[in-house]
Amino acid sequence: MNHLDWPVLADMQTDLRHWRAFAAAAETQHFHAAAELLGISQPALSQLIRTLETNLGSRLFDRQGRRIKLSAAGEALLPEAQMALSQAVRAEMVGRAISRGETRTLTAGYVGSAAFHPSFTALISAAIKMRPPVTLKLNQLTASQQVQRLVEQTLDFAMIRSPLPILDPALMILPIHTESMVLALPADDIRAAQPVCQLKDFAGDPFIQYIQQRSGGLRGQVEAACRQAGFEPRIAHTVPQIATMLCLVGAHTGVALVPQSMMRLALPGVAYCELHDPVTTELILLYRRSDTSPALRAILKLARGLNDKLNLSK
Asked: Best label site of 41, 136, 179, 206, fewest CB within 10 Å?
């Protein structure tokens, strides 16, 4: 019988006892020693081996007096049996861990600029250190994508920025931190020496803008701030990542409005100027109102405890 045919034997009456008996006999090469290893009688072990051989239709051992040796079929089957036993042990460990609440995995989304905010890094760090721990699977997505996936229940929570996209009533908002927007401009621009900038002074400059989302997003925030200053921004480039935006600023292709926490990136050739008339954005955690999982509640507790007075320059 070809060992590739074994998985199709769905009707055979074989359980983990048979695989343990087979693996122990293969390891010790002696039925008596294998029986002692398993804590059963030798006749019981021999019966388990015979039943397995009958079900498989193959002889698994060659008998050589009191010693035994794996047959060709036995050698082919042994790795599969060991894999099955290992998986059974793993499943048992996972099951026990779940019953104790020790295995907790959450899938989270975040916008790119959130990764540079100290509140975000503090939350991730605290989650890793929790006991029992929470395993986070992180996905960088747009705010609109995160909202959609929260509703579809393929994300457990999201980290986005205001202005908020249109939200489903099933979602809850947890504000994390409000920060100012700053103007990023080339470091050798003479206006970079000013401690405070008037946004209207940049009406003639090309702006590097955020991608357009279905609703919400920092693009609308920039447009509203420029209109408040009396002009429509002239868009030179549209990019999906703020890090790319700042690289383009450093390359003298335009200026950009970015969250203050992006100053931590400290890119060469890029300077930042505070605005005379403040423009703010808020880092926000979104989650489903109906989600009562202990792991998510632990994350929410951590998020609520974050200090809203973090030093964003660090």
From this structure: 41
The SS3 assignment for 213 reads: coil
* Range of 28-37, 271-280, 301-310 with top mean pLDDT: 271-280
Whether 194 has a pLDDT exceeding 50, the answer reads: yes
Fold of 105-177+282-304: D-Maltodextrin-Binding Protein; domain 2 (3.40.190)
Q: What does pTM read for this prediction?
A: 0.62
Class of domain 3-99: mainly alpha
Element (H, E) at 182: strand 171-186
**Burial of residue 220, with CB atoms counted within 10 A of its CB: 0-12 exposed, 13-18 middle, 19 or more buried:** middle
Determine what percent of the chain is predicted with pLDDT higher than 90.
Answer: 33
Per DSSP, what are the bridge partners of residue 282?
178
Residue spans in the chain of domains classed CATH 3.40.190.10:
105-177+282-304, 179-280
Supply the pLDDT for residue 6: 43
Answer for the pair 276, 196: CB distance below 8 angstroms, yes or no: yes
CATH placement of domain 179-280: 3.40.190.10
Nearest-angstrom CA–CA distance, 218 and 207: 13
Strands 280-288 and 206-210: unpaired
